[in-house]
Fold each of these.
Amino acid sequence: MTDTTGRRWHDMGGQEAGPVPMEGHDFALWEKRVDALMVLCSGKGHFTVDGLRRALEDMGEDAFEKHSYYERWIAAINQNLVEAGIYTLEELGMRMDEIARRGESYAEAQDD
Amino acid sequence: MAHDHHEHGLSPSGHPYRSDNDGPLTYWQRMEIAVRELLIEKGQLTPAEITAQIDAMDARSPANGATVVARAWTDPAFKSRLLENAAEASREMGFDIGPLHLIAVENTQDVHNLIVCTLCSCYPRNLLGLPPDWYKTRAYRSRAVIEPRKLLREFGVDLPASVTVRVHDSTADMRYIVLPARPEGTKHMSEADLAALVTRDSMIGTGLPRRP
């Protein structure tokens, strides 16, 4: 996590790296919802941007390489909401299991 | 993220649709649904608030920043207010900047500014919309501060050695936007026509405004 220079993995400035990958993508609905949850929950004072960053940075470099941006963001939001006592990990786990039984696609898994 | 998927078409903006728009439900998508439902059930959020926030974010695009730049090009008093306090000056034009500090940095004949967030992904999202994917990559974050001229050449911006390059590293509380230099030959153009010359990348510093 911390190399011999004392910097943590997310402190990337000045390191050697290859060409900038230029391909982009349009955000999927679930990604836009993650972004909205971040803005709304921090606006309501459930966490601060620093709380989110702490969760993101503690995930480590492995998560940065393996998971997409909004995957890491929903994990950080969730961690902060659990810590704030908004719901429990058990409630989250039960709900995620229930959602898995609703269908095989994101659209089918909505509760409506 | 691999982009080699098969027969997928391109979106209206010319990007490939990401596989998670139509693929099997993922663990992280289940987490998003669960978090959202729990927040709603516990009375913390309403579905309408979430929809309104998505609409507000969707409505933000580099066109917003471009109108601010065009105003600064045509109104010297506004330009000095923008350079003094970019958040206040942008609010004056009706843009919701939120609580963050926003600093406009001016490109001139002698100085070229570039913005980056080496630690994460901080970006003037309230004026430009969500950042492009490359802004969040390791390569951009690493190299912008150590070899900006080489990086800029990859973006098609080849600056003479006489131009000073200044790189601004954003933080969660402090965002930057580049005020590009007004192109030559635009003296008689209207503010609206000028705004059409202002690209997203010209406000990040990885590009220059279009020529008229």
Amino acid sequence: MLDQLEATRGELMKLVDAAADLPALEAVRVAALGKKGRVTQLMQGLKDIAPEARRDAGQALNRLKDEIEAALAKRKDGLGEAALDARLKTETLDLTLPTRPGGLGRIHPISQTIEELVQIFGAMGFSVAEGPDIDDDFHNFTALNFGPDHPARQMHDTFYLPPRPDGMPVVLRTHTSTVQIRTMMKAKPPFRIIVPGRTFRSDSDATHSPMFHQVEGLVIDETTHMGHLKGCLIDFCRAFFQLDDLPVRFRPSYFPFTEPSVEVDIGCSRKGGELKLGAGGDWLEILGCGMVHPNVLKNCGVDPTRYQGFAFGMGIDRIAMLKYGIPDLRPFFDADLRWLRHYGFVPLDPPSLAGGLSR
Amino acid sequence: MKFTLSWLTRHLDTKAGVEEIGATLTRLGLEVEGIDNRAKGLEPFVVGFVIKAEPHPNADRLRVCLVDTGKDQVQVVCGAPNARTGMKGVFAATGTVIPRTGAELKAGAIRGQASNGMLCSAYEMGLSDDHEGIIDLPADAPVGQPFAKVMGLDDPVIDVAVTPNRADCLGIRGIARDLAAAGLGTLKPLDVTPAPGRFKSSVQWKIAPGAESGCPQVVGRTIRGLKNGPSPRWLQDWLTAIGLRPISALVDVTNFTTHDISRPLHVFDADKLAGDLTMRWAKDGESLAALNGKTYALDASMVVIADDRRVHGIGGVMGGEHSGVTAATASVFIESALFSPGMVAATGRRLNLLSDARYRFERGLDPTSPFWGVEVATRLILEMCGGEASELTVAGSEPSWRRAVSYRPTRSRTLGGIDIPVAEQEGILRRLGFETKGGGEAIQVSPPGWRGDIEGEADIVEEVVRVHGLDKVLPVSMPGAGAMAQPAVTPAQRRPMLAKRTLAVRGLIEAVTFSFMPSALVDLFGGTPGELKLVNPIAADLDAMRPSIVANLLAAAKRNLDRGLGDPALFEVGPQYRDATPTGQTLAATAIRVGRALPRHWQGPARDVDAFDAKADALAVLEALGAPVENLQVSADAPGWYHPGQSGALRLGPNVLAWFGAVHPKVLATLDLKGPAVAVEVFVERVPLPRSKGTGRPKLDLSPFQPVERDFAFVVDTGVSAEALVRAARSADKTLIADARIFDRYVGDKVGPGKASLALSVTLQPKEATLTDEAIEQVSARIVAAVQKATGATLRT
């Protein structure tokens, strides 16, 4: 019996080793361990063995069965690996081929810049206010202390729509200052708002577009003075242009709706015809501002003997051009895909003060 | 406003150099736009005397000149026709850089004759475009002296931008006064001593009744027995330096007072006037041949200066040709008037006529100026032209202008942000010509006549702070409400940016296009009321406010296609306009895709855009904005610029949140755009905002039991919408059915004409126990029954 076992082991092991692929190995398994397999038959033969020998034979047979099963499993792994290797060899791809089409679009520089403005002024306690693009003479001029003969009211600057039935001239707002008026007439002080939005002037050349964007700022309370005006705008300029030592200069100027009125320049250099922001001995005007004129407060029903504050306005397109080195204004509105791809921003990188305004 | 340094020192006693003056002007609010140092680069050029000029032996057009340079005698070959013996010209020695060309002069020979320098033309000097011959200097020019100094070019020209409130600085004296107030010297007194009247003026001033509102006052006098020649050299040099052409002494005097003391004047040739002069409203139909050679039609809104026969001038704007002075003028009558700024501005606008006089009158003159203006002019005319002056003739009266502003000196600190001692504040104000009175908490400040812009306390703060120095105000950062910034935007204001970033992530590129569009195209996009058509458009194709952004994006797509940039996919989130009221503006997130959705690719065929690309864009934006996208209904009622069979509205009941679909072929044809093109318009503001204020989310209920998926195929009439079928299926068991969606659609022989097979996958999600086969069968039967009942569908076998 034991001799017979040894012979069977030898033969089966040879068969296992000889199986060339998984179906052949399966045939070996059936021939060894199947219902009519040789090991199975030997097991069945146990009942004919003398009881005193049966125990030893049984143990030996079980060992044989375990060994065969282990050998089969090992061989199966080996054959599987070889088969997989063979299959993988047929599945090689040229991964230098292009991917399926699709990709990210771009965010326009104006949208990105407006978000930057909101981040910076938001940190200074400002909130965003809005108003209509189409407004009237009262909100655009009269309430802002423009005299009836002010040159800005004339046709060559302002776009007009047909007047209202009551004769009130209707204009495309020439500045976002209209929203100062709307905000102050609607609510009670204190105010601390910025107003980014579309503005319109009948002007078109390399540096002017009939439509452009402005951001207005308004601070009204009982104590804000010109020191705050300077501090707020210096803080803004340095944060926005990401230049901690950017020189900022304040010059007296004139606007009908502020008194005193101020224009703000930032430092730059123009050496070699190239504009570079920073300390460079030259100046570049970027915004107008001033303390809100008492007449404007009065026109909005705010008591000028109690409340005061400042307002400012600047061109969003212009500061975006300066910050991002965009040379010409007109392509902003031309929707040229090449321009938009080049100057646009990836969509999932919104500016934030904590995460950085721009890379 | 231009002036020269030496002209400034006529009014300002100062030792400051031009750089310091420039910096101070800008600090004062008189922004320097440029300082033109005309002598720069001209240093090597000297006055040369041509001892002799003889014909060149080898060239007909050249002359050989011997030039005395003051240092030595030099031979120069010159091609100018006006080079001649005995003239004085501008000599440049060899080694000099010629300003116009930047080239260095070299010694050499021209056709065999030595030439060691050059006699220069104004063109070569960069002084004018005139290259007709060399500069011919006056006979008294000192030989060897620098040419620039001899010609008065060493007097730098300063150009400042004068803001509209500073009418006083449209005269150089006003600028000098500001500089003196800032401590840059002292203001010299202006001599306005009245000239004694030797006779009664033959012409008298009158103001017609009712015309006082246009001309409150006019002063004048006759000067007779004068001789009008060229004005003196100093005056010609100054006028030339600021860009004015010297004409004659009488004309130059009026130009001088205009720029020197901001006092426009007019002088009439008294011999050409018929009787007295009257300020009156023009009569409709009258006209004037003005001094600029043009004729202007006048109307009753304009004040004119007229005698018994004709109109001689347009008040505050321009005089007439008929009575203009000439070389033969022997007697003049002076007009020194006040005109209403509004009248002058309106007149100038209506006539489209700009003049130095108008510019000053419409900004407001010193109400006391008619009297001192006429005296300054009289003094100059008598000096330059001789003659004798009459007594003054005056009509009208000085408008009331004296006022006092109550000013609290503490306002320099509480409004201006800087504490300035009261004495210094008063000193600044007095140097500017203001009077100050009183003490204590508020002082009384009276502005001078030339400061019509001063109204109240804030104006005084501006004067004090700008003269003291705006740069001395210390910046103070904005005091915060707390350590944490509050949100700057409301939930509603966040949505435009969400829409933009969602569309950009989907591969679309953001454009910003004009709010305008061509009115010729608005009817294609639903039309626009007349109140949205611009009265004064900048171009014919930018003459209407856009009723939809789709038009502008399609136009942009066409521009890109024309440039060879294919498959444009653009979006814009911005305003569109229904009417001209403050609420007539809608915020739309609009996108277009043109051409192919998928370009040619090695893994599969190219695919054109279709309405489902637009629908996907719409749903993505709506989901980002928080709309309940699972509950939206599609209706086939998108507006006329969409393909009627391939477009729809996404709505919550009556509330249309978006339109989407293929663009109507007629629109594409009109825009000459090769399609296909699809568009989507999401109305951002119509998406409902979340009702709850808190930050909590509804509780998430996760079932531990396995969901079961069952597929059905229904044959329906092609008129039955997929949405109707899905809705019916869902209604069969609202608690058990978690999802139902169409995954296949078949039209063809196997289902017959007019029919479609829709394959539906339903997900059943048990919450209590695992579903038994029996339960699944029951709900399947209910689904089939519900679909059949609602749509007439049959189960496909």
Amino acid sequence: MSTLTYDGMAMVGRQLRRVRNSPGLAVLTQVMPINMLLFFGYVFGSALAMPGREYRSFLVPGLLVATAAGGIMTGMFQAAADSHRGVMDRFRTMPVSRAAVPLGQGVADLVVTAIGTVPLLLVGLAVGWRIHGSALEVAGAVGLLLLFRFACTSIGIFLGLLTRSEDAAGQLGASTFVLPLLSNAYIPTDGLAGWLRTLAEWNPISAVTTALRDLFGNAPVPADGAWPVTHPVAGSLVWSVALIAVFMPLAVRRYARGER
Amino acid sequence: MHAVRGLDLAVARGTVCGVLGPNGAGKTTAVRLLTTLLRPDAGSARIAGHDLAREAAAVRRSIGVTGQYASVDGDLTGRENLRLFARLHRVRAPGERAGELLDRFGLAEAADRQASTYSGGMRRRLDLAASLIRRPEVLFLDEPTTGLDPASRTLIWEVVRELTADGTTVVLTTQYLEEADQLADDIALVDRGRVAHTGSPAQFKALIGSYVEVVVAHADVMAKAAGVLGQLTGAQPSFDHERHAVGAVTRDSTLTLPRLVRELDAAGVPLLDASLRTPTLDDVFLRLTDRSSEHADDKEPAV
């Protein structure tokens, strides 16, 4: 087994044990999207042209992706908090692969997210959301969602190591809340004014949301719109891979530098 | 501004080098440089035969580091911490090694509690245990006992002595002169980022000398006592007539209290009290650094 794989798995183990030892935060972060599903689904849903049940089916994939985008905040918060821990210095003075710590954090986050998303899916099913896609399509949807989560966490880890500030992560958390608002996660984009619609459709969240709706069989791919939305699977892959390719190496470099 | 400049240090294998200096002298910066946490602007070093700049990975395989602040993960239990480090060190049975170390460092009972609930002394012991997962060739201890209870301090000293007996080289920074006196084979006194003085603890003390004082039974024998003292120390004795005391400074480190008492007894001096006060390293330290107290509180500047 390569050094990176071995060290990386040890780091994944470290993060998972930490979540198990103090699960409070991980549990709390899952409450928010369920609240939003109920509020948006029943409050906004009653004001939209779409019938309530149909809107809630439309909303569940959007919330899944919006929650995945929260990886920016979670990743940043964890990395910033970690950067103050003496244990990071110990890792740096040990013969440990430099990429293992950021990668381990990202992979552990995927495990926590995958488990933590189950309650949202159950509430979704309870309020009328259904999966119509084939097993392969569903697997594809889960894969795209996790890949996107990893991309967002990569951005967060880099920012966390850059700022070394949990306060900054908290502030950014508030602003990342608006990212899904400027996408098709909660509303269809075809009603938006021209430039705003373009902006919303180029938001990576829109591509992944559209892909999930298509693969779960909740809503068809729009016939017209920006390329990532009309080709949502390819669009999601390109966005996620590009973000990971940029931010994960930056995060690793930043980590390796330490306080130098 | 450089926290460390022109700091030359050579430590022989299997010995303890005590790096002494006031706050802000550059001790911690030196340790961070030597343990690959900081990159030097200039200069070079070899740790266990590996070049610090070009063979950082090899250096990391040879060293153990215990810093001023415990480098363990507070969210993990003591056992989980040691298992993790053991895995990263590719120890074949990480759980077993963790168990051994927890026993050795008196942490077996607290092993399955999160390290954040540990007392300062327990955390520091866990930290030292983490540095010893594999016996390091060179162990860096940066103020390992600052603020520790006496029991933890004694345990840490004991472990350091065991390690050097097995051939580990130890670089120990400390503000406690007693600690350097107890452990160090050689002392490097660091002041304002450079080595101000090096030598053994005995050499350091010899720089100042000891103070011998005897109290005799009556005034008539004071002159006789002064004669013996003058002979033994080679110094001019001083008198305290009120207390019937005679004192002298000696730089002869072989002069012991029993010998002093024997000589005085042989000369027929009725002794009431005798003392030989070796200077503490504190005395030496103050004398050699000659710093005013406001300097001592200076913060360590970044590199």
